[in-house]
Amino acid sequence: MIRPAGIGDAAAIARVHVASWRSTYGAVLPGDFLDSLTQDAYTDRWRRFIAERSNLAYVVEEGQDPSANVVGFASGGRERAGETGYKGELYAIYLLESAQRRGYGRELVRAIVGGLRGMGIDDMIIWVMRDNGPARDFYERLGGAYVRTQPTTIGPATVEEVSYGWPSLADVRY
Predict the structure, then answer these.
(1) What CA–CA distance (Å, rounded) separates 160 from 168?
(2) Shortest CA distance to 109 belongs to which of 69, 138, 66, 134?
(3) Is 45 part of any domain?
(4) CATH of the domain at 7
(5) Can you list the residues of the chain whose pLDDT is less than 70?
(6) Apex 125 CA angle, 122 and 130, nearest 5
(7) Angle (nearest 5°) at CA 163 between 162 and 168
């Protein structure tokens, strides 16, 4: 089930966030940096993010206990970096490894797109690490068009990010 995230979901989102970063970026980011990520720090961050009404956050859950069964999340809102041609942004989308390839990612993107439309936004951009091939393939299958590449610093590492854009949300292919 996909639903809007509430403040009470912050710890579950943080758990997924930290676990996903460790499983996804182990070959890209230094291990000691990934080991330093804590659920507590991310819980505080997610509480603040969700409390800000201009942000969008959705969770996907399996089973009966919502807080224990959050297996993924997505966040989005207004484009943050002044990228020309885009007013909306899919900030993040992460699923536990055990929840991947079940269609949850597409449904989380659909939720963000619906939220952006509700904000009066009709386009979207996403940034993804260049070396995250599975995520790049996912955005390309959804119809995202390459926009540009830029370096970014994450912890002690400088990596390349690639952006994909949808000039019209009607072009997102679920």
Answers:
(1) 25
(2) 138
(3) yes
(4) 3.40.630.30
(5) 64-68
(6) 165
(7) 160
